[in-house]
Automatic annotation (TrEMBL):
Keywords: Chaperone, Membrane, Mitochondrion, Mitochondrion inner membrane, Transit peptide. Residues 19-38 are annotated as: Disordered. It comes from Delphinapterus leucas. GO terms for cellular component: mitochondrial inner membrane. The lineage of its organism: Eukaryota, Metazoa, Chordata, Craniata, Vertebrata. One of its GO terms (biological process) is mitochondrial proton-transporting ATP synthase complex assembly. The keyword Cell inner membrane does not apply. This is ATP synthase mitochondrial F1 complex assembly factor 2. InterPro entries: ATP12_ATP_synth-F1-assembly, ATP12_ATP_synth-F1-assembly_N, ATP12_ortho_dom_sf.
Length: 290
């Protein structure tokens, strides 16, 4: 039994034919494409919007996204189903906010859901944990410079407090190093943080690894997920040396600003994805007052 949960406004756009390839919305029962055609690959960067309305329905497996009367599917043609209504609303908002063209490179939540559903690299939970934990060996905030003194002081003033918070929060020793080999992370520290990551489900771990890979830092990611840092703070701390160089040598017009905004968007989406996947989220609909 299907239950209609939400319908988003479509903006009165004309209904176009569904394009081939990439993320698709199914028309209903029918033959599946051959296996080689369902290989996981990023969809086209932009394409025409082919739907007017976005809605959500709930089935036995979770929440689904509908583009008009078509059900959204992943690049491998699996039914696009997410575990919480809140995540479904966030994804539906991404699709509804597209204008005349669908810019999939801006739809980070949809991409993370596709990765969780299709698992194109066939990684299990332990592999996801170690993929994130390996960044400890080259963590941005742990790898320091020896000169110039102004940058050394900047790194110490901005990064040491975050490391100190993480050490107190998890009861571990992290430290920092100027060695080209990176910091020497104690075995117990690694065990504690790996155990902490293991408390998350597989979907949330996909989001955590995504954020870690954006910030190049496990410490900053933990600070962000634990709400110790804002997205803006985490991103600026991850780009501290670059910001120092820009201040010294100047900014490349538009290029650095674009990179900064893109990194903020990716990091924010990843953090939101983790939180929406870490709990049984439900949208509370307001009842009309009598």
């Amino acid at each position: 039994m299907w239950r209609s949960c939400l319908r988003l406004r479509g903006g009165g756009r004309h209904l176009l034919n569904c394009p081939r390839g990439g993320l698709t919305a199914s028309r209903g029962p029918g033959p599946k494409p051959p296996a080689h055609a369902r290989a996981y690959a990023p969809p086209a960067a932009e394409r025409k919007r082919f739907y007017q309305n976005v809605s959500i329905t709930q089935g036995e497996a979770g929440f689904e996204i509908n583009l008009d009367h078509r059900k959204l599917r992943t690049p491998q043609a699996k039914l696009f189903t997410v575990p919480s209504e809140a995540l479904a609303v966030a994804v539906a908002t991404e699709w509804d906010s597209q204008q005349d063209t669908i810019k999939t490179y801006t739809m980070h939540l949809t991409t993370l859901c596709n990765t969780s559903l299709d698992n194109p690299t066939q990684r299990d939970k332990d592999q996801l944990i170690w993929a994130a934990a390996k960044f400890l060996d080259t963590d941005t905030v742990c790898c320091r410079v020896e000169e110039p003194e102004t940058l050394v002081e900047l790194q110490r003033n901005e990064w040491d407090p975050v490391i100190g918070w993480a050490e107190r929060r998890y009861g571990v020793k992290i430290g920092s190093s100027t060695s080209i080999m990176g910091p020497s992370i104690p075995a117990r520290t690694r065990e504690v943080l790996v155990s902490h990551l293991a408390s998350y489900n597989t979907w949330a771990l996909q989001g955590i690894e995504f954020v870690v890979s954006q910030l190049k830092s496990m410490v900053l990611t933990l600070g962000l997920i634990d709400l110790h840092l804002t997205v803006e703070q985490a991103v600026l701390l991850s780009r501290l040396e670059e910001a120092f160089q820009i201040q010294k040598w100047g900014n490349v017009e538009w290029a650095h600003d674009y990179e900064l905004q893109d990194l903020r968007a990716r990091t924010a989406a990843g953090a939101l994805f983790v939180h929406l996947c870490s709990e049984s989220s439900a949208v509370k609909h307001k009842l009309p007052q009598g």
